[in-house]
Amino acid sequence: MPHEAILQVRDLTVSFATDLGVVRAADGVSFDLSPGKTLALVGESGCGKSMTALSLLDLLPSPGRIESGEILIGDKNILNMDEAEIDEVRGQRIAMIFQEPMSALNPVFCVGDQIAEVLRVHFATSKTDAWDAAVKMMQRVGIANAPVRAKNYPHQLSGGMRQRVMIAMALICKPDILIADEPTTALDVTVQAQILDLMMEMQAELGTAILFISHDLGVVSEIADDVMVMYAGRIVERSPAATLFGAPLHPYTLGLLQTLPRMDRRVAILPALPGSVPDLRALPKGCRFSDRCRLAEDVCQQTDPELKRAGAGRSVACLKVAP
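Structure (tokenized):
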């Protein structure tokens, strides 16, 4: 897979300096992403998923910084680019759908202008041609009466429509890589299914590589080719999706899957993972999941496990799982 990868992330470490200590939101994260494939990044809130995604576009909020690593698109390292080079990459080579479209869209410009602006920034396109392209893209993402809706402001659209606008903005330059950060959060089930279908259709048409970030394993099981499980800034398991959902290796992954409702199991109360993600300013000495793990032994409290191969296309960071 590495020779096919359009995006290669190597040992990425992202940190935030605070008055109470340094927080490493991503700690030694590595992965590859191939054209036409969907890689899901899952985990609880606070595990570092969104900060990992933002670092790929050099959009970390202050005081965040990338301590070390490489982010390669083709043979170019984003971390070695100046601001002009990065601006060229954003939107044209790699684009992002943000969690909350109401805050990501500018409230004082109509949505058609905002989509058209993305095209004009990257290509020598006239205002009229960019507007026409924006309307066509709105039609392609399933917005009815697009010529009229393009003149609407974000507050005049429903949540599902705003999310479609965000997808149109992300795809209008036909980027090689699309980062989708919780793209169906707060949408009802019907709209959620429509948005996911739309993303898959556009991927099939354009060959886009998708990094799909979510805490919803039900959604991930429907669309992902491969899954990475993140905990406290680290990747603790990576596997083809079908294999992971059928036979998870890491106790954290198993715990997440057990919280999902199932048609073949009737329970009064769904299981829940005990405890919470540790404070990233004061991580435990050994395995970061040890204080929540029912399999933990003394060695787990002392030794921080490395991510190691555990079969075809699989890797896991757990002392209790034999490589």
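DSSP finds twelve helices and twelve strands in the chain. The first strand starts at residue 7 and ends at 18.
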